[in-house]
Amino acid sequence: MEMFRLDGRVAVVTGGSRGIGLAIARAYAGAGAHVVLTARTEATLAQAVSAIQAEGGSAEAVAFDMADIDSGRALVDRIVATHGRFDILVNNAGLNVRQPATEVTPEAFDRVQDVNLRGPLFLAQAAGKVMLAQDSGKIINIASISSFLGLAKLASYATSKAAILQLTRVLSSEWAHANVQVNAIAPGFIVTDLNRALWDNDGVRNWVLGNTPARRLGTTDDLLGAAIFLAGSASDFITGQVIVVDGGLLSGGAWPL
After folding, report:
1. How confident is the model at residue 256 (pLDDT cuts 50, 70, 90)?
2. Taking the CA of residue 94 as centre, how many other CA atoms within 13 Å lie in the half-sphere pointing to its CB?
3. Residues that are catalytic
4. What is the pLDDT of residues 18-28, one digit of tens each?
5. What are the CA-CA distances from residue 35 to residues 38, 56, 66 (Å)?
6. Max CA distance (Å), the chain
7. Cα separation of 223 and 158, whole Å?
8. Alpha carbons 184 and 15: distance in angstroms, whole number
């Protein structure tokens, strides 16, 4: 259906060289968008772009550190200068430092906030100015079930992801009048190349499976329906919302009755 197509649109996906970001970028390219992938490592970016182009998609790469605000502004300027527009921003790049709360250091906390919260805010600010001027745009922030659950050893990460939800709501409130929608996706426990070793731990895996009504781990493909929906015209009257993609984990679960 046309409302789920992205033909002619320019989409930026941060952290787009692998995992969730790459899966979303491939889906957008498959739906007709020109996709700009960002990440810090040029080699993995090149591989990601090649994979998308091999599938017939249109993509390019820009090396970019989410914590560098000046680079974010330069990224937006470059895209507008090259393509004349900026339609979709997916704030996906993220960082996690697992520490007990008694051991959290200011340096680690600040680094997580710089990448997970400060960077998305100021990149959205720069992109939002363009979107407001063109009277259209979609911003999709990647939150987490840690936006809701207080899981141990995630004080820095969970704080940043809870704040992302409020950032989403504030931006949606300010920009809806100009046909700019700002929403979030909160993934549950999703298997990626980066975290695959975690699921080899029987204790961790069994806890997740036991608390997820779907009784399985998620895959990056499970996120693509929400990502396409929020990027296309099907969601033009939806803003300030979060779609949780977690197999039902937050909805509850089995209990001994």
Report:
1. low
2. 23
3. 157
4. 999 999 999 99
5. 10, 12, 17
6. 62
7. 20
8. 16
Task: Encode 157-191: b = buried (16+ Cβ within 10 Å), e = exposed.
Answer: bbbbbbbbbebbbebbeebeeebbbbbbbbbbbbb
Q: Measure CA 46 to chain center.
A: 20
Domain spans of the chain? 2-244
CA 49 distance to own-chain centroid:
18
Indicate the length of the chain as a whole number: 257
Asked if residue 128 lies in contact with residue 87, where contact means CB atoms within 8 angstroms, the answer is no
E-assigned strand segments in 163-241: 180-187
Domain 2-244 class?
alpha beta
pLDDT digits (tens, 9 = 90+) for 124-183: 999 999 999 999 999 999 999 999 999 999 999 999 999 999 999 999 999 999 999 999
For residue 62, the one-letter residue type is V
**Rounded CA separation 44/22 (Å):** 10
Amino acid at 175: W
* Amino acid at position 155, single letter: A
